[in-house]
Amino acid sequence: MNAPEQPSIASNPPPNITSGPGKASAPAPEPGLIKLKHLSRVLNVPARWRILRELARGEALPVKELAVRARCPAASASKHMALLKKAGLVVVGYGRLYKLAPDVQPEPGGQRLDLGHCVLKLDTAW
Q1: Can you tell me the distance from the alpha carbon of 87 to that of 41, in angstroms, rounded to the nearest whole number?
Q2: pTM value?
Q3: Residue 68 sits in a domain of what CATH number?
Q4: Of these four, 3, 24, 44, 61, which has the most CB atoms within 10 Å of its CB?
Q5: Is the residue at 15 inside a domain?
Q6: Beta bridge partners of 17
């Protein structure tokens, strides 16, 4: 007499779990959701808010022009742009022109960016 078959255990681990004792991976981030650790660094400098406000107007701009509009030195603006890029808020296009990432486009006719964790209101002056 044959024993009833036991359900087989899948050889692939379920999502969000890596093989190995006690190792679990973080869940995959939602598309368009900026990591909080990056977001907190981005939001603590007024010049970055001014840069985001300028880019929310829809025009792709070089660092030098962003520096003028954000009232900061070009070297500082370049560092701000690197951080904004790392956070996933901006992308660099042809001719080193910066623009907002597709996932963080402003609401139509507004100056608000929905970042998932929060909504940035960019129409206030700093």
Answers
A1: 9
A2: 0.68
A3: 1.10.10.10
A4: 61
A5: no
A6: 24
